[in-house]
Amino acid sequence: MKRNKLDLLIFILLVGIGVFFVSTKKSRPQNITSKKITITASFYPLAFLAKRIGDEYVDVINLTPAGAEPHDFEPTTKDMATIEKSSLLIMNGMGVEMYEKKLNEQLAGSSVKIVLAGKEFAIQDIVKDGTKRKDPHVWVDPVLYGKMAQKIAGEMGKLDTAHASEYKKNANQLVEELNSLDRSYKQELASCTLHKIVTAHTAFGYLAHRYGFEQIGISGISPEEEPSPKELKLITDFVKKEGVNHILLEELAPRVWGETVAAETGAQVLVLNPLEGITPDEEKDGVNYISIQKKNIESLKIALQCK
Ligand SMILES: [Zn+2]
């Protein structure tokens, strides 16, 4: 009996050692493949997508600093070095990044893969001073933003095939949240008295088209474009004539022209966020694309006088 017990003990010990070796052997390749991929995004909504989709497998750098807005941002030499160390550079395209062409030239022949996440979805025209161009603000529409998410997930999956299914799963989860946001927009803006809004810059064309209203931007496609006195007069007259009671301004862009229109017409100022960047305080408080959109729905409900 004693002999049998000893045999059993040795047997258990050997099995234990075997399991230990097999498990150490198995864990080795995981350590090798666990290197994160570095992604640089040109501004906030693209960085948010990359982070949500890539989660633990990526390091995401946002080129536009928190509190700045992307239309007038230019990368520094230090930023260039950061981009060159990335596997993927995500830009929106269609002119948001004034430096797109320059970067394309500088990165030609490098190993950095460039993806223009918004380009193929930017189908609406915008006309200013008789010149027609494509409106780049696709990310403001939650449905189009979902399509951008799936495009980015596909590109990340090509770059890091080992985690392609995770990227797809994360993108699908985000799309579900965006679909829920889309339903809220439809519900909350279903019955409104007004169908026109006055905004700081013309960033809401896709949103307006999807939910059935019209935007009149005080500035043009970029919030830094100063309106002429004639344009300001036209907007002031429009506000009075159409019974618009609210001017929808931004936190990261100049407010002076909008405040002038508000002062001249007696309209109130509200915030409508074009989701182009977040302030350092917002970042600290965990504000993100989804929570900003929920606030935007509230502002639009007031401005459009919805029930
Ligand atoms: Zn913009």
TrEMBL record:
UniProt cross-references to Gene3D superfamilies, sorted A to Z: Nitrogenase molybdenum iron protein domain (3.40.50.1980)
GO MF, one annotated term: metal ion binding
InterPro entries cross-referenced by the UniProt entry: AdhesinB, Bact_metal-bind_prot9, Lipoprotein_PsaA-like, ZnuA-like
UniProt record, GO biological process: cell adhesion; metal ion transport
Annotated family: Belongs to the bacterial solute-binding protein 9 family.
UniProtKB keywords: Signal, Transport
Superkingdom per UniProt: Bacteria
SUPFAM superfamilies in alphabetical order: Helical backbone' metal receptor (SSF53807)
Source organism per UniProt: Candidatus Roizmanbacteria bacterium CG_4_10_14_0_8_um_filter_33_9
Pfam family, one: ZnuA
Protein name: ABC transporter substrate-binding protein
